[in-house]
Design a protein that fits this description.
GO terms for molecular function: hydrolase activity. Keywords: Hydrolase. This is HAD family hydrolase. By secondary structure, the chain is α/β, with parallel strands linked by helices. It contains ten helices and six strands; from the N terminus they run E-H-H-H-H-H-E-H-E-H-H-E-H-E-E-H. The protein has a six-stranded parallel β-sheet, with helices on both faces. Helix 3 packs across helix 4. Bound molecules: magnesium ion.
Length: 240
Amino acid sequence: MLHEKYKVLLFDLDDTLFNHSYCYKKAVTDTVKFHDCLNHLDEEVFFKTFAKNNQQLWKEFQCKRITFQELTLKRLISTLNQLYINISLEETESINEFYHGNYLKNIVPDPQIQKLLKRLKGIFKMGIVTNGTSFNAYKKVQRLGLNDVFGDEYIIVSEETGYSKPEPQIFYHVLEKFKINPEETLFVGDNYYTDICGASSIGMDTIWVNHFDLKPPTDTIPTYTVKSIFAIVERLRIKI
Ligand SMILES: [Mg+2]
């Protein structure tokens, strides 16, 4: 059986185990909708501006020039400045808190994913490898009702290891934690660069959850490609 080659199955979190993009966009647009100082703005324009600032600041966060908390406040401050919204720092911080609460609230358990992961847990050791803060990562797993599938010890977060995907150090950290060789490890993720290129660079096999049917942008070829996480059981020839 194909799946016997692997002992450990590792998952990315955002947009692999839940629809992060949806929760993120809904939190941003609800933030606009539910604040009097913002609700005259076009939600789409606000979202695009916010997302662009997020992308730029994320690079600084990954280079460890700013903390995650600074990133989240700065992306909001920049967005407000660019859209000519003049409010106090206190009000900005309260809007930022609303955004975070709303984002987490949008994350809900998915019985299908729970069933799939429980089945896989009967076969493999499993972990999560995610870029971001520990607080958020544990909270997301809790909101998804996946605590009994992934113990805290096996949720590996960039903030704790000091390295972010695709840096090889974070993947080596995981190998050490599981006391496993890369050849016996399979990494499942949606992001071609951070997940697939990162895991491949240290010799892990990979499953690319390619939601949008993209062509691999470089010559790193995923071991398997699926359109949805539910297809991994067929790829690994597992009976469910
Ligand atoms: Mg992802």
